[in-house]
Design a protein that fits this description.
CATH architecture: Up-down Bundle
Largest sheet: none
Number of strands: 0
Subcellular location: Cell membrane
CATH superfamily: MFS general substrate transporter like domains
CATH topology: Growth Hormone, Chain: A
Order of helices and strands: HHHHHHHHHHHHHHH
Number of domains: 1
CATH class: Mainly Alpha
Radius of gyration: 21 Å
GO cellular component, one term: plasma membrane
Keywords: Cell membrane, Membrane, Transmembrane, Transmembrane helix, Transport
Distance between the termini: 44 Å
InterPro entries: MFS_dom, MFS_trans_sf, TM_effector
Membrane topology: Multi-pass membrane protein
Length: 415
């Protein structure tokens, strides 16, 4: 049997565990957002919720980054799932006692962000230890597609449940999903190459060597920056999606759930399409997808009908994996296992330094300029930066034929 067609069972346990936890995260995010918006009616409060999610995680990424590759990755993922499950007990109890206040939701958001700062790079570093190198693209596409599928189903189910029963049922579903995800992760048999290396560097030495290594790799550095621009737009959408549907398009929680679910549906379709396309120029493929993504922001700013907005989100979802999956696979192929989690944590640090700016601008400009103007502004930024990456000769180093032939030896030092 072709080895590339047969992924090991360990990977499928990871896939099931991550899918369940993704479903829990989607339910939790939507429920907290709905409750907070009902309590405050403020776009700035929505922005604050996401800022509190993002900002504490920046410090955590700096503190734990040098140690992520020394810890057992399976145990780290299980513990992360368990903590996120327990923290959602807080709003359940307080809501039942009619004592829930906005700052309680901020606490849940802050702890969730801190745990996610450890969980995300560890999860990305886990995949290469479970599958062969030639299986990485397929594994990443399958994992990404499955997670996006839950992101599609989650908002629909959460919107329906919230409209009918409110948060008292959706929050327990969050807890159940996280605990079940942790249970499936316990079935993973840790591979030998996952064992932490005998790295005796101090924290300062680890930080210095990690930043130096990351900065010197030209491809990785610029891929992270292009991704950061896109995540700036994601930060804006985190704040403006709900007001866009409820106020601009006069929708409700059910329509919002369908709208949010459309992007993941497109992402699943895009992942399937990506896995069946022949190899090509990654520079044009990845950055061209970002151009399309930026144009969808502009299109949303113009749309006046929910059906049109849903179609636009579908297109945005189809385009998204062409950058995300390829860039993630390049990182996994180019970085040695003993540095992988730390470098992913540095990439996440860059993204999370940019996303608070997106949430801040999304909240402030959404209140002052309006939702549509802000969406158009952000979309044009993404289009402009991506076109620079496609058109400027400086970025020719991104013109690799495909990610299956890339090896660490091909990495270019940053000029």
């Amino acid at each position: 049997m072709d080895r590339r067609l047969s992924l090991p069972m360990n990977f499928y346990w990871l896939l099931i565990g991550e899918t369940l936890s993704s479903l829990g995260g989607t339910f939790g995010t939507m429920t907290n957002s709905f409750v907070l918006f009902q309590m405050t009616g403020s776009k700035t409060a929505m922005g604050t919720l996401w800022l509190i999610y993002l900002l504490p995680s920046l410090l955590v990424l700096l503190l734990v980054g040098p140690y992520l590759d020394r810890w057992n990755r399976t145990h780290t993922l299980i513990l992360s799932h368990g903590i996120r499950g327990f923290i959602f007990l807080l709003p359940v109890v307080l809501w039942s006692l009619d004592q829930l206040l906005p700052w309680h939701l901020y606490i849940v958001s802050a702890i969730s962000g801190i745990v996610q700062a450890v969980y995300a790079p560890t999860s990305l570093a886990m995949t290469p230890s479970l599958v062969a190198k030639e299986q990485l693209s397929k594994a990443n596409a399958l994992l990404d597609g499955s997670l996006r599928l839950t992101s599609m189903l989650g908002p629909i189910l959460a919107g329906l449940m919230f409209a009918k029963w409110g948060p008292f049922l959706t929050w327990p579903c969050v807890i159940f999903a996280f605990f079940c995800g942790a249970l499936f992760l316990t079935t993973i048999t840790p591979p030998k190459k996952q064992r932490p290396p005998g790295n005796k560097q101090t924290w300062v030495e680890g930080i210095q060597s990690g930043f130096t290594y990351f900065y010197q790799q030209k491809i990785l550095w610029w891929l992270a920056l292009f991704l950061a621009v896109v995540q700036f737009g994601v930060g804006v959408l985190m704040v403006l999606n709900l007001p866009y549907i409820l106020q601009e398009l006069r929708g409700n929680s059910i329509i919002y759930g369908w709208f949010i679910a459309t992007f993941p549906l497109g992402y699943v379709l895009g992942s399937y399409l990506l896995s069946h396309l022949k190899s090509g120029n990654l520079r044009r493929r990845m950055l061209g997808a970002n151009v399309i993504g930026g144009l969808t922001f502009v299109a949303l700013a113009i749309a006046n009908h929910i059906g049109v907005a849903i179609c636009i989100e579908l297109i945005a979802g189809i385009a998204a994996p062409f950058f995300h999956v390829h860039s993630t696979t390049l990182f996994q192929r180019l970085i040695p296992q003993e540095r992988l989690a730390q470098v992913f944590s540095l990439r996440l640090l860059i993204i999370r330094c940019i996303m608070p700016l997106g949430t801040f601008i999304g909240g402030i400009l959404g209140d002052s300029w309006g939702t549509r103007t802000t969406l158009c502004f952000v979309g044009l930024i993404i289009v402009f930066v991506s076109l620079l990456g496609i058109l400027l000769p400086y970025f020719r180093f991104l013109e690799v034929a495909d990610d299956h032939s890339i090896e660490p030896a091909t990495m270019q030092k940053k000029a």
